[in-house]
Design goal:
This protein has helices at 13-19, 24-37, 46-82, and strands at residues 2-4, 10-12, 88-92, 98-109, 112-117, 122-124, 128-132. It is of the alpha+beta class and 146 residues long. It has two domains: 2-64; 81-136, Roll (SH3 type barrels), CATH 2.30.30. Strands 6-5-4-3-7 form a five-stranded antiparallel sheet. A two-stranded antiparallel ribbon has the order 1-2. A hairpin with a 5-residue loop joins strand 3 and strand 4 (98-109). Helix 2 (24-37) packs antiparallel against helix 3 (46-82).
């Protein structure tokens, strides 16, 4: 059985099912190839072309939004990590070693922020167990029962 694909050509039903597996970039490449290779004397249906262009704009907007959100998340993680400079933390290194030490600096990596400790060890932001404010050690908790 054949169905009519998004670009107006008959395609096998299994190919139509695989259409959903395409990434946005692959889809955009297919659409641009279709537009570049169509016969100018017998262009595709204008309505279909407009639908395709609308879909392209929507996909591009989604890709732009995704990039901006990822940038925002990265900046938020970096700011959170930077706020721990000078703080005493517990956690585990990337190798799983338990550590307790002061945060000396923050390193930005592809995997996310990594805290550099005074001891020279590194702790990924996600591996922090506890942040301890040593200036308050020995005080009674203010929010719980004494």
């Amino acid at each position: 059985m054949e169905t009519i694909g998004a670009i107006g050509a008959a395609v096998p039903a299994t190919a139509n099912d695989r259409f959903g597996e395409l990434s946005s970039q692959q889809f955009v490449k297919i659409i641009f190839t279709e537009l570049a290779n169509q016969d100018p004397l017998e262009p595709n249906d204008t309505g279909a072309l407009l639908d395709q262009l609308s879909t392209l704009r929507s996909i591009q907007s989604d890709m732009d939004l995704s990039e901006k959100l990822q940038t925002l998340v990265t900046q938020n993680e970096l700011m959170s990590a930077a706020s721990m400079i000078g703080k005493f933390i517990t956690g585990t290194t990337q190798k799983g070693e338990p550590v307790e030490d002061f945060v000396f600096s923050v390193l930005r990596t592809k995997a996310g922020p990594v805290l550099n400790l005074d001891s020279g060890k590194q702790v990924p932001l996600a591996n922090i167990g506890e942040i301890i404010d040593l200036s308050r050690v020995g005080e009674q908790p203010t929010g719980g029962t004494p």
